[in-house]
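TA notes. Do not distribute before section.
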Amino acid sequence: MPGSNTYSQLPQEQEQQEQQTRTVQQPVAQSAPQPVAQPQANAPVAQTNAATNSPSNYGELYTYLQNAMNEARPETPEERKKRERNEKWNGIISGISDAVRSVSNLYFTTQQAPNMYDAKNSMSAKAQERFDKAKAERQAKADKFLNYALTLGKLKDADDAKAYQRDKDAAAAARDERDFNFRVEMAQKEQDNADRNFKRQQERDDKDDAFRNRQFEEGIRQFNVQSSREAHRLAMEGKRLAMQQAQGQMSFNLGPGNGNVVLSSAQLNAQTVSRIFRTLPQKVRDKVHGEPIYTQDFQGHKVISGYGDPSTEAMLIAIGANVQDSRETQDAIREVAGKKVEKRKIAGF
């Protein structure tokens, strides 16, 4: 029958139309992105994995994310327009093919042929299935792209934070080094100044010591003694008092059972020393005298008519050498030191 031959050719025509539709849809199917292999969830991203091609260090991780973003990058506006145009034409072709098949099926069913129409197997349904699958893949790529972008952003933020902290630490280390060098320099300057001051002070002290020694030596020459033993005793007392005067105080041994009395240099001013000196016995005071006073006799010769007051150093030597033999001198020293003395008249006080 002619009708039966026509009906037998229908599957071939439908197959050819589907082949044409697949040929038109082929660029879209090929352009569909392939899923990017992801590292395992339970393994660090930076570990090497041959199956997932995951990176093994920080530099590889950065490159890996860049490449993964490029692979998952969303379609451009030009690509979207081309895809929508292809989908539109595929939809039109699928609709026309389904219409032809529906009319053919309707015709042959009127000729007692079985109904071969199935909406699920229509070209429009298959095209819509492909469209939905491609849309899901695009959405998955967009999600991957977003995740990669966020991860890469976090890495860049971590890089920036590390660089900032590194620069901050370097600046702090440089500042600490400058401060340390400055303190060392200032300490060295202070030490140099202290050394210079110490040297100058030592020179002044040496000059003062030499001056005091000369003063006490001059005081010893003011004594009128005959024996060398007495001269030696006075010389030793002068050296002792000179050494103690350099320390700012002098001690006087009042004799057995009477102890020592220490007086400061401020307490032993010239007036106080003179008052204590006048408490010594007259025979002791007669042995020490100041510079001679010269006059001329009736023949015009220069003669000594008397002596001036002894120097303070000479009076101190006389006090230190003879205080143990004079109760009045001991009491005078105690009174200058602020110690309690017996109420009796002290010569010169």
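Switch to the second chain here.
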Amino acid sequence: MLTLEQTLEQQKNLNQLCADRPQKTSEFFAGNAFYGIDLIIKKYANLSPNYPLKAIVPHGVNLSDDKVWEAELQSLLPTIWAYPPYRVKSYLKQLPNDYPRKQVIPAASPFLYLIELLKNQPKPKRQGTIFFPFHSTHHVIVKMDDEAQAEYLEQLPAKFQPITVCIYWKDYHLGRHIPFEKRGMRVVSAGHIYDPDFLFRFYHLCSLHQYASSNALGSHLFYAVKAGCAYFHLNQPLDYDLQGNDKFLREFAPPPAIREEQLQKLFTTVHPETTPEQMAIVDEYLGAKFLLSPEQMRSQLFAAETEYNYLLVKSAVKYLNQGKNAEALKIMEMAIAALPKEPGLHYGKAIALARMGQNQAAIESLNILFAAIPEHPKARHLLAEISGQKQDRMIGS
């Protein structure tokens, strides 16, 4: 795991730390690897880092009641671990009703498992404030008056000083850190969204500060509090402009007013330490009551894997019955990779291949089946059809 010392050393080269990079992951659902959340879960559950999770794990706290990432709905993974608890209904409302339907399980944020992994780490002395500006994303650029924001931070009372600004990787390349830097504020970063150490680095940076603050609501609020910071929200008008494709701009829809008002009211007043009321709401949003032991986590992951394997086979058969042979072939190959000890799956693959006119590939798939079950009757019948002995009959199941 990344240490505090390594985190501080990496801050010496923000050009390298914030450099754009391709995603490299063994995850079936790419979003699971954002910010390294997959590795946190696997480390906690004592699983190989190369083991792909068979559940969808949201990569942050979503304050919306109805906004759901389309990729999560379209993924073949059959299980969604939802947090905060109200997000269970959000997913269920958006999921299609066709069979098989995903199951949505209330869960704890991966950041809580990171806290468990680091709970015995030395606690450094805290001072000053770490500030998180409202940030851009891969696809949307946030433009706002960072000069005015830096000037405001500069005027904060002495107890909040020094100010450290944690800049998002995309905004570093846009130069949004410069107004803060030129006023003598230290600029740091947790790194790139595809950096597997992102959340460890975030935690270590927070661990150096008494306070955390931002001009926007988001995951950083909840994470900073759990990392030991007293968080305060800068309750000032947030004047900004967004640039990007309409599809991605919709991600920036404001949270429900009642939720926004609740959080702003609770965190606008500055406290030297997090109050019980503040911690209670943070734990609620992070799903703390659903925190699992390592053994329970492994059990839930393996249950998700069983469900995933079942879903693959059912989906492939459904596509075969609908005559969607290319889709059936793709999913049948995934099922074969997931269940290498189930030779019968090669029969379904051969059907799809034969229907697509790929007879030689179909025969090769059947031969794999025959090596395990030499007298598989339906497979022998299919082989006869492919070989032209029953050309007048439609290739079927």
